[in-house]
Design a protein that fits this description.
- The protein has five helices and two strands; from the N terminus they run H-E-H-H-H-E-H.
- It is mainly alpha-helical.
- The chain has a two-stranded antiparallel sheet.
- The chain is elongated, with a radius of gyration of 26 Å.
- It starts with 10 loop residues before the first helix and ends in a 7-residue tail after the last helix.
- The mean pLDDT is 83.
């Protein structure tokens, strides 16, 4: 009977490893929290929204005035990049987990990956 990956490896080890790996990854992702703060441009220039929104608004104005000119597209593109950089620089990731929980996450994730990989190996090999 063929096991996981068409080898003689253990099908049970595959499912246990997959369950451990997915459980460990779920516990890891579940412990992460996301918060926001001022972005890099808002933080250094007094929180002014004109610094971040001004180029985008000017680019949109130029596009509505004459959409065939490349200047409007360039200014709008630069404005959109500035807004995205400011928003993404304000996102903060953190993790709230005790040491014993972190050890369990590591054991489940790494152990599950090891069992999963071992199940693809031929059990007749030494």
């Amino acid at each position: 009977m063929q096991g996981a990956g068409g080898t003689e490896g253990g099908l049970g080890a595959f499912f246990v490893g997959a369950a451990m790996l997915l459980g460990g990854l779920w516990m890891f992702i579940d412990s992460i929290y996301v918060s926001t703060q001022y972005g890099i441009l808002s933080r250094y220039y007094g929180g002014s929204s004109f610094i971040t929104m001004g180029p985008l608004v000017l680019g949109i104005l130029l596009l509505f005035f004459n959409a065939e000119r490349k200047t409007g597209w360039i200014v709008a593109g630069i404005g959109l990049v500035i807004v995205l950089v400011d928003v993404l620089s304000g996102v903060r990731f953190g993790m709230h987990m005790k040491l014993w929980q972190w050890i369990i996450v590591l054991v489940f994730t790494v152990g599950g990956a090891g069992l999963l990989l071992r199940s693809f190996r031929d059990s007749a090999r030494t």
